[in-house]
């Protein structure tokens, strides 16, 4: 639960829209979904593109706090690179 709280807080700080769930994942909304997924894959972070269900959405499984810090750091780098998520 601590890693989920941490992850959601960091997403909010970056103004990234997300949807809470009781499952082990969170859906987030991003522009250029495929580019985002590819960027994270290049950092060895594998998420699911949910565009086939919800346009411009990805599913990110919640892991340990250490894992989620790595995900947040990579998302932050992506946001800095594209300047508009």
UniProtKB/TrEMBL annotation:
Classification via InterPro entries: Aminotransferase_I/II_large, PyrdxlP-dep_Trfase, PyrdxlP-dep_Trfase_small
One of the record's GO molecular function terms: pyridoxal phosphate binding
Coiled coil (residue ranges): none
TM ranges: none
Gene3D superfamilies from the UniProt entry: Aspartate Aminotransferase, domain 1
Domain Aminotransferase class I/classII large: 2-75
Protein name: Aminotransferase class I/classII large domain-containing protein
Organism: Helicobacter saguini
């Amino acid at each position: 639960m601590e890693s989920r709280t941490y992850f959601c807080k960091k997403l909010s700080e970056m103004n990234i829209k997300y949807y809470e769930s009781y499952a082990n994942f969170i859906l987030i909304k991003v522009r250029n979904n495929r580019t985002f997924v590819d960027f994270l894959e290049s950092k060895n972070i594998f998420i699911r593109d949910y565009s086939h269900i919800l346009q411009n959405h990805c599913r990110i499984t919640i892991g340990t706090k250490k894992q989620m810090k790595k995900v947040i750091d990579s998302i932050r780098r992506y946001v800095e690179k594209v300047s508009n998520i």
